[in-house]
Structures are given as structure tokens and as C-alpha cells.
Amino acid sequence: MIWEHIRYALPEASLIIGILHLFFMYLLSYDSAKIYARVARFWLLVSLFWAVAWQEKSFSPLYFTNDAYTLLFNLCIGFLAYIMIGLASTWFSTENKTGCKYYILILSSLIGINLMLSSSNLVALLFCYILLTYTHYRLLGISYEKLPSEAASRYMGVSAMVVIIFAAGFGYLNSYEDGNVEFATLRELFLKAPQSLPLYLSAVAIIIPFLYSLGIAPFHIMAEDKTGKGILPVSHYFALIAPLAFWGCFIKLNVELFTPLSSELSPVYQGFALLSVIFGAMGANARINLHRILSYSSMYHFGIVLLLLSFFKPETNFAAFVYLFVYTISLNGSYLVFYSLKSHGEYLSSVTSLSGLAETRAYTTGALLVSLFSFIGLPPLVGFLGQLNAVSELLKREYYISLGIILFFLLILSKAYLDIIKTAYFEHKIKIYDSENKSVMMYTLFSVICIVLIAFNPQDLFAIMKDMFDVVNL
Q1: Which of 55, 124, 368, 474 has the most CB atoms around it within 10 Å of its CB?
Q2: pTM exceeds 0.90 for this model
Q3: pLDDT value for 258
């Protein structure tokens, strides 16, 4: 029995071994960022292998449950993390840093993500959320500037209050059920007393930390700091990996725990969703830092995901996942371009730094153009599938006002994207760009191919994803 528990813990154990491997390399004074990246990626692949091998097994069934749904998100996150770690090595090499601390924290966060996605008990979920919060605090603390950023301290202060709210909701439910806080048990509790105000407030206390972590308005107080104040590899993580993990857990919570409260939660979700759409579009047009523009852009797109989830229906849940998936693929393409924007050894992040980029970096500018057009939802790019699914579901349910708001503010958001394109293609060059890294060019080409080809649903990809996703709806 003990050996079975050890065997089923191999996905997380592999990451722990990877952390120890990186630490011993640091003690032995290895000074190559690429070597650290190779080690981190090797143990990531080992972890994914064991996750596939034991996809329906858990080392602690009382607290964690693995299935095709958790595997789907683990594979998506692992794929993006593999690319991100490889790109981070080019950044750290340019800065003459090893990046050991970064790789250790990334593997640590992946452990927390694996456990959070498979949580089936509120005790485990709270523990994983606290673990990820601390890991994110340490990631934001990575800085190579002379004056350290205060973003990490602000994040920890706000997150501590959010954790207290989470703990308050958990504490009430834990005392109400005498310590039995499995999702299945709590779902039955919500079914029996859907009108109970204390139970409803407890559910809200569990939902708020996820809305905060996802940067949903009006809980987006730290969203701009996380993607705009950290170094580029950290910003990359907070823009792609962390949101995908929190969405995966949030969708699971809504299906397995909060469905009995759908009539009460649905209008709340819709209000926050439309607020995010409005704030996101307006905020993106008011920023000049590329990372912050995309941070507000994420708020707009995440608002649409939340709006689809507000219906609490299997078909809209999957439509939300498709929208999230295609948006993440498109956003990854934009972040790959950021690793190419370098002048005199300094990575650039302002819109004005793109002036005349197309004159000397036609390949990079073309990749940026494809990513931004995918955000807008132009066919035949992958973003069109997400927009089509969202519009179709809203039309089916006759949510014409919500659809009108989404489309109107998409036009406003598009202005921010078009300003970036105009600066890159039609402004005069003001920067002399450094030569492009070949590995970054390779990753960028691969990303552009994905943005174009996934729209054609190769090998019935979305049908496979739907089969894996629908496990959570059973």
C-alpha cells in the first residue's frame, strides 16, 4: 500500500527531485543558465510522463482526485512551461545570471498547480492556494534592478487578506460539517440549503480568492503589478501559466461544488464579467507599457470566460475553456516576441520602442501582427474559434445586451492593438535592435504555426479536448 502511494506521487516527486537537482548544481557553482533550464525541463517532462501514466490515480484519494480533466490542464500548462523555461534561459544568459532561483520557484509552483487542480477537499485546496501565494510572492521578488520593486510586498499584503477571507469561508464550512469538507459533501449541503445566507457567504469567501488571482474586476488590484513589474520570465509566468491553473481549478469548483448556487451566483458572475470587459478595454488604451496593455487585455478576455461560466451549463463551460485555450495560445505568441525586443542588451517594453520595428525585424513584427489579430478574432486564426463559440452561446441564450457590450468594447480594445501595429509598421525607427536569438526565432515560428493551424482543428483536437474536459461535468 505504501509503495502504491509513492508510485502515484511520482508526478510531484519528480518536480521535487528537480528542485533538489537544481539546488545541488548551484552549490557546485554551475554558471550556465541553459544548463539549469535543461535540468528543469527534463524533470518537467518526467513529471508529465508520470502524470499521463497515473492519470486516474492519486497518492491521497481523500484529498486529491486525478482524472482526464486534470490531465488536460496539466498537459496544457506543462507545454507552456516547457517553452517558457527555454525562453527564460535566453533572458538570464543575456543578463549574465544563472536563473537558478527562478527555475526552482517555477518547479515549486508547478507542484502547487498539480495539487490544486486535483484537489477534491477544501483542506487541500486552501493549502495549495497558500503554497502558490507564497511561491508567487518569491517570484515577484526576483529583481536585478538597483532599486528593488515594492510589487512583491504589496502582493503579499493584499494576498494575506484574501487568504484570511478564504480561511473564514473554509472555517465556517468545516465547523458546519464537523471537518468533512470534501467537494461532494459540500455540494450536497448546498443542495439541501440553497437559500442559507451563511452558506452563501461561505461560498463567496471561497470564490473571491480565485477572482482576485485571475484579475477579474473589481478584484484586479494586483493584476497590473504581476505582469508589469516583474522581470520578463516572471511576467511570462503570471500572464500564462498562473491564470490557466486558476481557471482550471475555478471551473472545477463551479461544476463540482457551486452548481446548486447557480441561480444566486449567475448574476454576480455576469456583473463582474461585464465590468472586466469594460475595465479591460479602457485600461489597455490608457497604458503605454506592452506588458500592462496585455494585462488589461487579459481582463477583457477573462471577463468573457467568466460570462460563459455564469450559465453553469456543460456546453458553456467547454466554450469558456476553448476561449481560454485559444487566447492563451495567442498571448504566448505575443510574449515570444518580447524576448526578441532588445536594444544594446536591454529588453524593451514600451509601445514607442516598437517604432519602425518592421524595417529591420519583419519576421518578428509579422509574428506580433498574427498574435494581435488572433486576439481580435479574425479568421482564419485560432482566436476566431474562441470568439465564434462565445458569440454562438450568447445568441442561443438571447443575451443580446451582453453580446453588444462585448462587441462594442472589443472595438475599443482593438484600438490598443492597432496602435501597436501602427507604431511597428508606420513610425520611424528610433532604436537599433540587437541581433535576434535563433532559439527565440524558432519558438516564435512554432507559435505562429500553432495560432494558424489549430484554427483548422487538426486530428479533431477539440473533440479530444472535449472528451477530457467533460469528465468534470459527469
Answers
A1: 368
A2: yes
A3: 93
